[in-house]
Fold this sequence. Notes:
mainly alpha; 88% helix; 102 residues
Amino acid sequence: MNDWSERYRLDAREWVELEAAASLLENLRSANLSQIMLGNKTESVSKAEMLARASPQWTEYNEKMVEARRKANLAKVKLEWDRMKFSEQQSQEATARAERRL
């Protein structure tokens, strides 16, 4: 695929989707912890929080959140790479035009 504009558009769309998924997980982190805490039938809030943070559900949620952020960051790097390659191509074309004028 030589059309850098189309490649950029597709990669930007992928990044937007992955960024939204990662942000959603990050924004729901406290709500998720609260839900896990509610499942712990204890009188003490601090004990419920401690049990929730030690739970496999909390660990799994955090792993999923970190993986979503990793994917979004990787997509952002790919998008920046597209921009860099397009800029390099423009520079090479400008150089070639200048050389042809000489």
